[in-house]
Amino acid sequence: MISSPHYNCDVLIIGSGAAGLTLALRLAGKHQVTVLSKGPISEGSTFYAQGGIAAVFDEDDSIESHVEDTLVAGGGLCEREAVSFIASNARHCVQWLIDNGMLFDKESPENGDGPYHLTREGGHSHRRILHSADATGRAVENTLVSQALSLPNIRIIERSNAVDLIVSDKIGLPGERRVIGAYIWNRKREKVETCRARSVVLATGGAAKVYQYTTNPDVASGDGIAMAWRAGCRVANLEFNQFHPTCLFHPEARNFLLTEALRGEGAVLKRPDGTRFMPDFDQRAELAPRDIVARAIDHEMKRLGADCMYLDISHKPADFIQAHFPTINEKLKTLGFDLTKEPIPVVPAAHYTCGGVVVDQQGRTDVSGLYAIGEVSYTGLHGANRLASNSLLECLVYGWSAAEHINEHLQAVPPVEDLPAWDESRVDDSDEQVVIQHNWHELRLFMWDYVGIVRTTKRLERALRRITMLQQEIDEYYANFRISNNLLELRNLVQVAELIVRCAMERKESRGLHYTLDYPNQLDDPKPTVLTP
User: Fold this and answer.
1) Helix residue ranges, H only, 357-484
2) 3, pLDDT greater than 80
3) Is 511 designated active site?
4) H-run or E-run covering 191
5) Rounded to whole angstroms, how far apart are CA atoms 319 and 313?
6) Beta-strand relationship, 344-353 and 241-248
7) Per-residue pLDDT at 5 exceeds 90
8) Residue 208 CA to chain centroid, in angstroms?
């Protein structure tokens, strides 16, 4: 059945974090933009980012140095052209954010015209991280949201999931294969609606929720990667899942991150007996890249049979700690810890998806009119391991570059009059939500056990067998019952889990975030892992 769409816009942006809102603001002067937010507008990984944004603002620093640090952290798999493109455009994109109201910390807060306070994080050779105390993501998100809410050309739809992309050839339209809209699950109305758009942008973030332990909010369920794959887009390097080394070990705060900036300002990692261990693993000690630190913590936990390791900055003055890490300090106090006086228990947790949907420098995917920006995408920036504070930067730079391309080319795209309505005439209401919950927990647990920080071929094969069985169950369930938020997320997570495992099985070496006991050495000429539907 063909019907008029519920929503009509020039550009549909799926995701409301730093990438999506940056793009929306840059398009709103020329185009009608709809932003789809899975939860409340501010809920997403951007809001919880603590560290900051890497950019060269210090005259003693250089773009070349930022590029080299990124290449080293990426373990030989970054694409130099992409890294240079992002580092070279960092400053003006960050300045755009500042011009839109973002307040970064200054060296002398009382002097509003003074230089920015730049911190340092693991893998960086200079202090180049602009930040807003220890809650940079929250400040970025609040800045972008306030601007977006003030513009009449931006419509924001909250608490709604994108179900799938609508692609021209699948509904029998002639000509070039292109995206023409999306199906949307409106959770308030409990119905699937259609949105027509000349262009669609995936800005849905990563897929860390595929793991049992993660620093990410619940919305990070790989939706954009799964939808793009179903639409016919290539994906790459999904074997490289970054595990943040220092997530708080506490049953009431399982996804609370202890920012890498703590180590940048002198925090050290200790065993339960109080001895340091990072100097035993890397000459950079606590400032080694995240993959090295996470594996070292994992190694010591397994070797000692310990539940956690400890992060200690209590040797620094209390005033210094409270000034630099107020949010973390206050949160820990509510849980019975004092950052200024004692070591804090930490464990690694899934944090960032370094691979994703293959795009070019304008964020264009393999499907005409479909873009992917931010963590959902594979740009070539991160390689085998993301350098700290390059993630928000990538969002800003690709929000700008995609906007440049869309602003230049969108008017030439003809609109589609009608879209096929969502057909749920043959589905029933399900009274077995327990099935979804069981599959959900099983998936996240075996991904953690078999496709985690250390892998083997047997573990990957075991995971793929489980995934295949789950996919059959979920496909049957999806075909027979009305959809729900949990079902949509589970369907996408299982799809992304398959892609992660397939990428991991293709890489016959250990590099960066992918470490396998069966292939501990590195290949001489590594290539990205690219999967084609």
Assistant:
1) 391-409, 433-450, 457-480
2) no
3) no
4) strand 191-202
5) 12
6) antiparallel
7) no
8) 8
Beta strands 7-14 and 191-202 are parallel
Q: Which amino acid is at 29?
A: G
pLDDT in the model for residue 374? 97
- Of 104, 97, 95, nearest to 135 by C-alpha is 104
Phi, psi for 179 (deg, rounded to 5): -85, 140
Band the pLDDT of 428: cuts 50, 70, 90: low
Q: Under 8 Å CB-to-CB from 174, ≥6 apart: which residues?
A: none
Find, among 127, 255, 207, 286, the residue nearest to 501 by Cα.
207
Q: How far apart are CA 350 and CA 237, in angstroms?
A: 16
| Residue 89 CB partners (closer than 8 Å, separation 6+) | 397, 400, 401
Which residue is associated with the tokens 């699948």? 170
pLDDT digits (tens, 9 = 90+) for 282-308: 999 998 888 889 989 989 988 999 989
Q: CA–CA separation, 3 vs 378, rounded Å?
A: 35
* DSSP characters over 145-156: HHHHHT-TTEEE
Q: Choose the catalytic residue: 138, 178, 198, 290.
A: 290
Q: How many Å apart are CA 97 and CA 145, to the nearest integer?
A: 12
Alpha carbon distance 177, 167 (integer Å): 7
The burial class, CB within 10 Å (0-12 / 13-18 / 19+), for 123 is buried
Reported as a single tens digit per residue, the pLDDT across 126-152 is 999 999 987 898 999 999 999 999 999
How many other CB atoms are there within 10 angstroms of residue 336's CB atom? 8
Can you tell me which residue has the tokens 């019975």?
336
- Using an 8 Å Cβ cutoff, are 507 and 529 in contact? yes
Strand 53-54 to strand 118-119: parallel, antiparallel, or no bridges (unpaired)?
unpaired
Would you say 286 and 278 are in contact if contact means Cβ atoms under 8 Å apart? yes
Helix, strand, coil percent values for the chain (each to nearest 5): 40, 20, 40
22 membership: H or E segment, kind and range: helix 18-27
Q: Using one digit for the tens of pLDDT, what is the confidence trace for 210-228?
A: 998 888 888 899 999 999 9
Distance separating alpha carbons of residues 504 and 239, to the nearest angstrom:
5
Q: For residue 267, which of 307, 310, 299, 301 has the smallest C-alpha distance?
A: 310
Percent pLDDT > 70 in the chain is 96
Which residue type, as a one-letter code, is found at position 415? P
Residue 127 burial class via C-beta count within 10 angstroms: exposed 0-12, middle 13-18, buried 19 and up: middle
Is pLDDT at 43 greater than 90 in this prediction? no
Q: pLDDT band at residue 435, thresholds of 50, 70 and 90?
A: confident
Query: Sorting pLDDT into bands at 50, 70 and 90, what band is 1?
Result: low
